[in-house]
Amino acid sequence: MGTGRQTRQRSAILGKIREAEGPLSIAQIHERAGGEIPRLGIATVYRAVKALREGGEIVAVELPGEEPHYETADRGHHHHFRCRVCEQTYDLGVCPVGIPRGTMLPGGYTVEDHSLTLYGRCADCVA
Amino acid sequence: MGTGRQTRQRSAILGKIREAEGPLSIAQIHERAGGEIPRLGIATVYRAVKALREGGEIVAVELPGEEPHYETADRGHHHHFRCRVCEQTYDLGVCPVGIPRGTMLPGGYTVEDHSLTLYGRCADCVA
DNA sequence: CGAATCTTGCGAACACAAACTCAATAGCAA
DNA sequence: TTGCTATTGAGTTTGTGTTCGCAAGATTCG
Q1: Where would you find the membrane-spanning parts of this chain (chains A, B) (predicted)?
Q2: Are residue B39 and residue B96 in the same domain, yes or no?
Q3: Together in a domain, A42 and A61
Q4: E strands within chain A?
Q5: Among B36, B14, B35, B108, CA closest to A90
Q6: What pLDDT, in 10s, does the model give residues B38-74?
Q7: Residue of B126, B103, B32, B22 whose CA lies nearest to B66
Q8: With a threshold of 0.70, does the pTM exceed it?
Q9: Residue B2 falls within a domain, yes or no?
Q10: CB-CB neighbours of A117 under 10 Å
């Protein structure tokens, strides 16, 4: 599985995902990379994201009620904060969920994993 | 705002949501109520759910990567467990997230709310 | 440089959930 | 029971996110 050709649009797309403060939606990637590459097509973003996902460089992040967002695969276990004002999603370092893999909850539920999203206002939007 | 007429389909739909072990998708409501009301139309489920939502009887639950699910509005703060085998979602009583409203996280994020989903296997699917 | 072919941009096509249309049906009040 | 009218079911339509098809353009290798 080769990486394919190196084009301006592909490096712009991966670059924007890399330098983002959290996972980006397709629309956000399109906007941001489009600042660098005028007339960047949305289909190109979809194609690049698909390829990057198949190559294991980025992963999809599903947020409640949102379209998929994408971030680099090297960020490890973490959670997300979504600002209700600017609608940005940010990575968080903390994991305030004390439920290790394998825990059995009352009711017989065996936990393998979890997903936490915090909601509120980011620093810029508290003003 | 009246409740409208009482029909067999509406009471079946609300009944299924009430007796469910967790939030149901439109498709699940359709399936379950359809056992009681043959030839129940999907549009009727959408219409009933919309009316129940506007009347404050049920609320939408957004789960990562899923269509909206619906449950009765009287269940208070709780979280959900999703079985990866049977793809059912169950209500949980526990809230293992120690982040009260108003907490400020490193980075300047002010938390108002949170949403947690646990993944694993339910009792029936551990076999 | 030049050819081969992979990639791009754009419009059309698709998939899916949700809403609408309307004739037939069923609640409800008298 | 009777009539009025809200509701239903089935199909059609909309809306939005994603993919496809193809001609034009870019990248890589000889």
Answers
A1: none
A2: no
A3: yes
A4: 24-25, 58-61, 69-72, 79-83, 89-92, 104-105, 109-121
A5: B108
A6: 999 999 999 999 999 999 999 999 999 999 999 999 9
A7: B22
A8: yes
A9: no
A10: 23
Same-domain status, A33 and A67: yes
The reply to whether A21 and A36 lie within a common domain is: yes
**A19 and A56: one domain?**
yes
Q: Which of B82, B110, B111, B124 to mutate to test the interface with A (most CBs of A within 10 A)?
A: B110
Q: In total, how many domains does chain B have?
A: 2
Range of the domain at A93: 77-125
pLDDT in tens, chain A (127 residues): 578 999 999 999 999 999 999 999 999 999 999 999 999 999 999 999 999 999 999 999 999 999 999 999 999 999 999 999 999 999 999 899 989 999 999 999 999 999 999 999 999 999 8
- Chain A CB contacts of B113 under 8 Å are 118-120
Q: Which B residues in the span 90-109 are in contact with A, Cβ-Cβ below 8 Å?
A: 90, 92-94, 96-99, 105-109
Instruction: Answer whether residue B1 is part of any domain.
Output: no
* Same domain, yes or no: A86 and A52: no
CATH number for the domain spanning A119: value is 3.30.1490
What gap in Å lies between CA B51 and CA A31, rounded to an integer?
37
Same-domain status, B118 and B83: yes
pLDDT at A94: 85
- pLDDT surpasses 60 at B28: yes
Instruction: Tell me the C-alpha distance between A13 and B97, whole Å.
Output: 35
- Residue A59, chain B, CB below 8 Å: the answer is no
Report DSSP state, residue A121. E
Q: What is the pLDDT of residue A1?
A: 53
